[in-house]
Amino acid sequence: MTALPFPLAQAPDEFSSERGRLLFAGQTDFLKGVVAMSGLPAGDRIEVCFAGRSNVGKSTLINALTGRKGLARASNTPGRTQEINFFTLGGDSHYLVDLPGYGYANAPVAIVEKWQRLLKSYLAGRQNLRRAFVLIDARHGVKSVDEEIMRLLDSAAVTFQCVLTKADKVKEKDRERILDQVRGALAKHPAAFPEIILTSSEKGDGIAILRSIIATLE
């Protein structure tokens, strides 16, 4: 049988799972919000970033990963946060980066353009960035605004991995259709990592997988 392109990531082995548990059991703190390249902290450790359109559940996922309910601020106002937020993970071993939500229709054009310039500069100039995680709502699949961020990651040669959020909200009969759509979209992007992570912050699904992936990046 031919293997599916972009299969779902499987549960980690015991060693990787323990590395992930230990990394996220350590201290996690908010470091700073950055609005210009000059404010970026030194790139002296492994870094991962999370991108996703507004209300995809990014803050909720980061809070579930770290076990800290109020660490990443969730907002009901799309596009409110226009900073790149840095968190220290595992004491001083990693940076976890929360990028501003994109795809917000009500933000002023000038604000959107400023954020896009900052994002492009960040992605192109961050040598210690090991992987970007692009969050996609499992109920809706990849939208045109998601394609924009994926093209940006392609051009910056930053490996990105698709994380489907809110998987518990999808009916079983709809899951394969959505997965097919996501796989088709990812196939167009050379920077896409060939595995999809299925998560539910509410149920805890996929959290151990994502933790272990981050912990084992070199």
Could you walk me through the main structural features you see in this protein, from its secondary elements to its overall organization?
Belongs to the TRAFAC class TrmE-Era-EngA-EngB-Septin-like GTPase superfamily. EngB GTPase family. Its cofactor is Mg(2+). Residues 44-218 form the EngB-type G domain. Keywords: Cell cycle, Cell division, GTP-binding, Magnesium, Metal-binding, Nucleotide-binding, Septation. Necessary for normal cell division and for the maintenance of normal septation. A seven-stranded mixed sheet has the order 1-3-4-2-5-6-7, sandwiched between helices. The protein is built from six helices and seven strands, in the order αββαββαβαβαβα. α5 links the parallel β6 and β7. α1 (14-25) crosses α6 (207-215). Helix content is 34%, strand content 19%. The longest helix has 17 residues, at 109-125. It starts with 13 loop residues before the first helix and ends with a helix. It has a single domain (14-215), classed as P-loop containing nucleotide triphosphate hydrolases (Rossmann fold), CATH 3.40.50.300. By secondary structure, it is α/β, with parallel strands linked by helices. It has helices at 14-25, 58-66, 109-125, 144-156, 172-186, 207-215, and strands spanning 29-34, 46-52, 84-89, 94-98, 129-137, 160-165, 197-198. It is globular.
